[in-house]
Amino acid sequence: MTSAFQASLLDCDDDVAPGLLGSSVRRTELDRGAWIDVRPGWISGADTLFDRLIDAVPWRAERRRMYERVVDVPRLLAFYAEGEALPDPALDEAKRALDVHYAEELGESFRTAGLCLYRDGRDSVAWHGDTIGRGRSEDTMVAIVSIGTPRTLLLRPRGGGPTLRHDLGHGDLIVMGGSCQRTWEHAIPKSARVTGLRISIQFRPRGVR
Ligand SMILES: O=C(O)CCC(=O)C(=O)O
Ligand SMILES: [Fe+2]
Fold this sequence. Notes:
This protein is of the alpha+beta class. The protein has helices at 46-56, 89-106, 180-183, and strands at 17-18, 26-29, 34-39, 43-44, 63-66, 69-72, 76-80, 110-118, 125-128, 142-148, 151-157, 164-168, 172-178, 184-188, 198-205. The protein has three helices and 15 strands. The strands form four sheets. The protein has a seven-stranded antiparallel beta sheet. It has a four-stranded antiparallel beta sheet with strand order 9-14-11-12. Strands 1-4 form a two-stranded antiparallel sheet. The two termini are 28 Å apart. The site of fe (ii) ion has 3 residues, from loops. Residues 109-207 form the Fe2OG dioxygenase domain. GO terms for molecular function: dioxygenase activity.
């Protein structure tokens, strides 16, 4: 697959690396004990990482049962279970940096990496919380690195309330924490305007999916 994502002129760094976290992470408290942390432009060399992941990851299409029908999942997927080698050393570095930054607050390390490839604005993820496993009943964190074409992440309280909109740019980090998976839902909506590829990398602790 060739990259349909146009390398930005400012980002011509061949070395891929996560930047500092620390005070560059901006926290927004949501209600009901949920929060999000945002660190724009966390990954430098994100263009290079994007191209490497497009080639290295065994992207696969999935079909899932939805009520009476079996439908195509509208994005390509890959999953790296605990202990499985990640597809790029920069993802190991990102995971290590997240483990250090969140060690005290999370009390455990991130263990798995889920990857999604959104081929264009027709690909999406519907409203959901990551509630398969412990996210259903316990506070946890899901850290997402977004690279490629910017997409909108929507967040809304379960049971109703205003929708928050967050634009995820190339190399950005967003972490959903506290009760976010069980008291809020998130989605990447379809968009007729989006024509480029986006990769999302989600790091989760053990037993959260
Ligand atoms: O694409 C994203 O950043 C979100 C993906 C997501 O919510 C999920 O895989 O659970
Ligand atoms: Fe999710």
